[in-house]
Amino acid sequence: MARRSDARRSDARRIGMLGGTFDPVHIGHLRSAVEVAELMALDELRLIPSARPPHRGEPQVRAVDRLAMVELAVAGVSPLRVDDRELKRDKPSYSIDTLESLRAELAAEDQLFLILGWDAFCGLPGWHRWDELLQHCHILVLQRPDADSDAPESLRNLLAARSISDPLALEGPAGQISFIWQTPLAVSATQIRSLLASGKSVRYLVPDTVLAYIHAHGLYRDAN
Ligand code: ATP
After folding, report:
1. Distances, alpha carbon 18 to alpha carbons 57, 102, 184, 200, in Å
2. Residues 6+ apart with CB under 8 A from 15
3. Residue of higher predicted confidence among 91 and 5
4. I need a labelling partner for 133 at 20 to 30 A (CA). Which of 60, 93, 95, 113 fits?
5. pLDDT tens-digit profile of 51-105?
6. What are phi and psi of 181, to 5 degrees?
7. Span 187-210, pLDDT tens digits
8. Residue among 188, 205, 210 to mutate when testing ligand 1 (max atoms within 8 A of CB)
9. Which runs of E-coded beta strand occur in the chain?
10. Whole-angstrom distance, CA of residue 22 vs CA of residue 61
């Protein structure tokens, strides 16, 4: 509890963002989100489904279905929320655009935390206007205890200048990087799509409400 109160020294709100295709959302995303939100004493953790991800192929199901499933998954689960701003834009989902638009809605002192897996973090130098991200947010890197963790050369200077070891010591609205060590549940959306395409059960890998939606709408029956 002492750490929690340290993390909340001011009236600034603490908002996390977790982007993804969520094709479909699953318990790996959800457990991870709950754990980060608790550890960081977040006021909100926003799951942000992406429209056309710049770094990968088209999602298998329509945006409206991916959004509906994330909404069902987080209904009534504070402080998780869904943010559909990327689905409202008719452009690729660049994080810098999302951060700028979210920032514009917040008070200047509010703290914004962009949550990224280690792999995504290592790919940062390929992102659109990546060197501007830290003007708008802190970056929380989810690190697996078993992972190889040598950062690429292009990120070494940034890490040396901006990273701190204790995520609860991130100060101010933006500008620093820290790490959260977390063992992810061994589940992926790829695995779920493949189970469904071969007629197998995904019960307990997704919330029951999401399972009911998948079946009611006949999603993921065909391999893609
Ligand atoms: P796919 O299998 O289609 O690539 P995915 O399961 O990795 O999908 P995404 O929607 O691409 O899901 O992931 C969104 C975010 O959630 C990413 O930051 C990703 O690293 C993270 N994530 C994915 N699976 C897990 C998991 N099992 N535990 C914790 N975080 C996860």
Report:
1. 19, 13, 15, 28
2. 42, 43, 44, 45, 46, 102, 106, 110, 111, 112, 113
3. 91
4. 60
5. 876 666 788 999 999 999 999 999 999 999 999 999 998 777 799 999 999 999 9
6. -90, 120
7. 999 999 999 999 999 999 999 999
8. 188
9. 14-20, 44-49, 80-82, 111-117, 138-143, 177-181
10. 10
Q: How far is CA 78 from CA 30, 45, 82, 179, in A?
A: 12, 9, 11, 23
- Amino acid residing at 151: A
Round to whole Å and give the CA distance between 133 and 184. 25
Helix axes 208-216, 63-74, angle to 10 degrees: 150
Rounded to the nearest angstrom, the distance between the alpha carbon of 122 and the centre of ligand 1 is 15
Is the C-beta atom of 23 inside 6 A of ligand 1?
A: yes
Q: What domains, with CATH codes, occur in the chain?
A: 14-184 (3.40.50.620)
Strand partners, 52: 92
Q: What share of the chain is helix, strand, coil (3-state, %, to 5)?
A: 40, 15, 45
Which ligand 1 atom is the nearest neighbour of the CA of 186?
Answer: 27
Cα–Cα distance between 41 and 170 in angstroms, integer? 12
> Is 59's C-beta closer than 6 angstroms to any atom of ligand 1?
no
